Amino acid sequence: MKSLKNIFWISVYVFLNLVTNSILNAEPTPQNRESLNSRRTYLNWHQGLGLAAWGSWLATNLAGEAKYNEDKFFYKLRDTLPSQILTSYLIEPSNDKLLLYTITKNYHEEGTSEHGKLAYLTVGLYSASAYFAFMAPGKIDDTRTEGWSTIFTHKAMIFVHLPAMLALPSLGQKLEHGTAQDLENMRNVGWLGFSAFTISIASFYF
After folding, report:
1. Among 114, 112, 113, 119, CA closest to 56
2. pTM of the model as a whole
3. Among residues 114, 127, 205, 111, which one has the least CA distance to residue 166?
4. Per-residue pLDDT tens for 106-115?
C-alpha cells in the first residue's frame, strides 16, 4: 500500500512538472507575438535613425568647428575694440576704427549657414529616433538583469545627450548678441552631447 502511495505522489509530481514546463515553454500567444513584432519594428527604426542622427551630429560639429574659428575672431574683436579705440583714436583720429567697431558690434550671420542647416537635420533625426524608442511596446519579460549591462549604459547616456540636444538651439540663438564665452559654451556642449551619444550607440557594438 505504501509503495502504491509513493508511486501516486511521484506520478503527481511528474505530471505537475510536465505541465509547468509546458506553460513556461509555450509558444507566445498571437497577441504577444504581435507585440514582439511591433516592438522589433519600432526598435529597428530607432536604431537606424539613431545612426543617421549620429552621422548628422558629427557633420554638424565639424561644420561648427569651421564656423567657430571665424566667429571667434569677430567676438574677440568686438569685445576688445572699445578699450583700444579710447586710446588709439585720441592719438590718431580715424573713422575707420569706428566703422570697424560698428561692423563687429552688430555682427551676425545673414541667412542660415551650413552648420545651421545640418543642425536642423540633426534635431529632426534625433527627435524621430527618440519617438520610436519611447513609442515602442514594452518587453513581455520585464525581468531586470543584475549588474552592468549595455541597456543600462545606453539609457544612462540619455541624461547627458538629451539635455545637450535641448540646450543647443537656445545657445545658438543667444550667440546673435552673445560673447566669445557663449560661443565656447556652445562648442563644448555640442561635443559633450555628441560624445555621450557615441557611447550610447557604441555600447551595443563593443
Report:
1. 119
2. 0.69
3. 127
4. 555 555 678 8
